[in-house]
Amino acid sequence: MKKIIGITLIGFGVSIGLYFGLWVCFFGGIIEIVDQIKGNVEAVSIAWGIVKIVFSSFIGTVFGLIFAVPGFVLVTD
């Protein structure tokens, strides 16, 4: 039973890491910059989009590891 929960946590960790790192931060940052360029240009929003793009891999890794590490512990136990 522990192995099934561990594998589920690993899969969830990979999924949540990809979601936050790729979709929310990376693509969301690009969309935020493009929206600002198309419409009313605000420097703060463009800067926030750049920050989201730069830290997207770090954010994805952290969110993924929050669930994957306990999953690995359950699988190897």
Overview of the structural elements:
The protein has 77 residues and is mainly α. The chain has one domain. Helices cover 91% and strands 0% of the residues. It has three helices and no strands. Helix 1 runs antiparallel to helix 2 (43-54) and helix 1 packs antiparallel against helix 3 (56-76). The protein starts with a helix and ends with a helix.
Short description:
The chain has helices at residues 2-38, 43-54, 56-76. The chain is mostly helical.
Helix content: over 70%
Largest sheet: none
Shape: rod-shaped
Q: What's the total helix number?
A: 3
Distance between the termini: 11 Å
Tell me the β content.
under 5%
Mean pLDDT across every amino acid position = 94
Q: What letter string, H or E per element, gives the SSE order?
A: HHH
Work out the radius of gyration: 17 Å
Number of domains: 1
Give start-end ranges of low-pLDDT stretches: none
Structural class: mainly alpha
Count the E strands. Answer: 0
